[in-house]
Structures
1.
Amino acid sequence: MANIHLKDLRHSYMAEPKGDADWALKRVDLQWRDGGAYALLGPSGCGKSTLLNIISGLIRPSEGQILFDGEDVTDVAPDQREIAQVFQFPVVYDTMTVYDNLAFPLRNRGVANAKVDARVREIAEMLELSDMLQARAAGLSADGKQKISMGRGLVREDVNVIMFDEPLTVIDPHLKWKLRSKLKELHQKVKVTMIYVTHDQTEALTFADEVVVMQEGEVVQIGTPVELFERPAHTFVGHFIGSPGMNVLPCELRDGGAFFAGSQVTLADGTGRPNGAGRLEIGVRPEFVRFSQTDGVPATVVRVADAGRYRVVETRAADMRVYALAPEGADIPEGETRLTFDPTRTRLYADGWLVSDNQEV
Ligand code: ADP
Ligand code: MG
């Protein structure tokens, strides 16, 4: 097991990258603590697989270094890095039995038979493959094959890190939830560093203690699920996480206050005018938008959708769509209303980035 430090990484798939857009990873510098459960979250194409393949050594970064416990492994071959990687689509030996597939990574490293057997049965039990250990992998469904793939990733106990690249893509929805909780359980048991890549916020937030959010080849925020929810460092994070995501609304700063659609909005912090900022916006999550008859921003309710414990209320205010979440049983106005934003939860963003009085954040 190891601490992993990705030091000043950049990567381009082009021989002669020119503009920003030519870099699949623009600049990444981050550390993964030994034994942590991490998620790498971001939309398709933001560079997640590129980053994983750099850690495992399948790709050599154009610039920067990969350190395991301080030791530079940038030029160490993939099979020498002691990493398990599970890909989006199953990698199994079709002609082998399920048992032999799971045993392969251990036998390959000369692990004693008794130990192999115990470990294979333990992993099979966890993934509910015990009944089919003697079946050929070829006969299994896509789900079944991916479970073998995951099993092969989990079977070794001596790896530096186990990485999963969108492993549940081909898995049936009802199984997804189950496997996700199993992985979490397993992590708590074995404490091997795990990095779980996904574009699905629910998967990331349920699995990880710490989530790294990426956008267009850059890390925009690293935080616990609570931090990402409560204090998005960038409007992208606010919008990408949450359902619906944070409302991001244009604002003006004048007379010492922030104004949206002509109404003054009280901010949690960051009221000082940001230096030379271009685009100014306020961010407030739908959870912290309330209806009022007397105060706030004039708005019109256009749609109400039931989401179980909450109703999602879509409103329009000054041509902007603003969502509010109303708890079960709360009164929802029809037509014209006013919106107030919880002042402790309303933040200012300049060119997408959080403006804070507390410069440490
Ligand atoms: P993600 O896994 O987040 O979907 P990727 O790391 O696969 O993102 O891709 C990041 C960027 O690099 C994308 O623009 C993608 O088109 C590009 N890319 C990925 N793999 C290659 C490749 N082998 N050759 C050229 N470009 C690639
Ligand atoms: Mg990918």
2.
Amino acid sequence: MAIRPILHIPTPCLREVAAPVVEVNDEIKTLIKDMFDTMYDAPGIGLAAPQIGVMHRVIVMDPADEEDEPAPLAMINPKITWLSEELRVHQEGCLSIPEYYEDVERPVLCKVTYLDENGEYHERECDGLLSTVVQHEVDHLNGRLFIDYISRLKRERVIKKFKKIAKRAAE
Ligand code: K2U
Ligand code: ZN
């Protein structure tokens, strides 16, 4: 299919709320294929549709280690229905904020409902890295970024850096 350009901050759509998918049609199925192609090419372990400028509630993930078999997972209209009280810190990065990593504290476990690429409904409890990635990607659908969980000083510094990069690129 196609590798699509990944948008970087401060692109406005990364701060907007994506719309629910009404029908899992061929357009959505092609979008999912393109998102996996784009994610694996990056490389990344997750990608949300707004990161390629598509404001649909679609995320793709593959948290499998390099030595393990790929475990691609697409979620349409994902909804986090429960979060554990137990929290854990994990180093996060973001393909829309390249080469910037910070420790982020999130609930260890989450439960998520979603439709798969065939339109089938699923309820799933997620743990480990998958739990972190699901929460990170669902945040993208709501215009939230992992830098929203770090100090304001650090956030403002990284936004200023990427605004400068974007300004130079436009010149
Ligand atoms: O949404 C994205 O930009 C994808 C992130 C997914 C991610 C979520 C939580 C924690 C780490 C990554 C990218 O895959 S960033 C690249 C990456 C890959 C593995 C580990 C850390 C960063
Ligand atoms: Zn991200």
3.
Amino acid sequence: MVAFLKELAIELYDIQAVKFGEFKTKVGLTTPVYFDLRVVISHPKLMLKLAKALWTLVDNPAKVSRICGVPYTALPLATLISVEEKIPMLMKRKEAKSYGTKKLIEGIFLPGENCVIIEDVITSGSSILETVDVLKKENLSVTEAYVLIDREQGGKKNLENHEIKVKSLFVITQLMKYLLEAGKITPEIVKDVDNYLIANRAPSISVQGVPDDRLKLSYSKRAKLTTNPLASKLLELMESKQTNLCLAADLTKMDAILELANIAGPHIAVLKTHVDIIEDFNENFIFRLKELARQHRFLLMEDRKFGDIGNTVSLQYRHGFYKIAEWADLITVHPISGASVVDALKKSLDNITEPRGIFLVAEMSCKGTLTTGDYLKNAVLMAEEASDLVVGFVCQSNLSAQPGLLQLTPGVKLVKSVDGLGQQYNDPQSIINAGADLAVVGRGITDTGNGYLKATLEYKKELWNAYEERINTSNT
Ligand code: 5BU
């Protein structure tokens, strides 16, 4: 087997399925090793060899009744195994069909059937978990995954925590040993990759609906688990003011916003603005708003949703009419441009001594939003891996188990509803149960006929009760 694996490793290297150098990951970070198993389809002989080798890892082939490859790279491998072993295959769609049955799985199966997963490379395990989640929702039994290469960054552990046993043909360190022995790579490369792997462990992952530590922990405990001083301050103030309410002050006159801030201030954690909708904006507004924030102990968030290249966003953040970096504790940023945008924003904070934080917009609340699938997954990964300037992300569901990251959810009203312009509202309890730490409420408070104070207190109470219930229920 060793000789066979060694030969296989060399073949993979020779067709450039395994590359060493400097590469960008999906979220824009640098990695010294890159696997591109997609090229295997151009080498049918090797592809068959890999499929057969993968199948030798299966403990009890007679017990396997379905095979499912994780899209896309593993699909041809799963197909070959299916044909060779005469075991029917299932395919997970990347997105549910938008018409007809809306199903997420193609292929015929019965509830309770045993389905194994085939995957090319495992890093954090998130792709496998996504597939497992979909299969399990259809009542299939899924307990095993077979993988070509394990990058040894924590994915195996993540899957084991979710009761999925993983077997891989290669682990990256062994693969490098074979290539070193064959003279394909140098000891320096091996050392580089080893160092990279140690420094870049994949974060632990929660599958939607599965309780994780984050949901069990109180805000004050989580304040000690953040890397960003502002996130820590925010969690502390949420606990001490007993509020997880972020007020969206979407009013168009300075005085109206200041009046709202003065009334709601003692009961909110964050006041969120869109300064570019204010018709009579001037610097005095910022001065007075900051004073109210200090007096009532809330943070200021400018929901600017920066979404351009690094150089442009750093100019927009620091310069122009609003000089956002000078006063907004927090800002929102679209991850569309990749991780470099966070570095650029960080660089533009020269001479700003107060702590600053970013919420990455991973998922939006509006109907038909494009923040789905890989985009969403990579946005969360970016928040998990990015610099300590990121305090959390905007989302609609529980997307990360990291207790140090705050999950901010807009689209909240006492009753589930829509606004006729695409906005979709969920009620306070369901968004907190779904994993939100901070809830954004705008018109639920500003459009009320009962006065700001009454509405603010009502949302504050609903949201805080839901949080207390969450940590208490999760602890039992
Ligand atoms: P509303 O009045 O509660 O609908 O206001 C919601 C606020 O949150 C508003 O300022 C939006 O710009 C903001 N928002 C949102 O509604 N949905 C999103 O996905 C994001 C921000 Br990101």
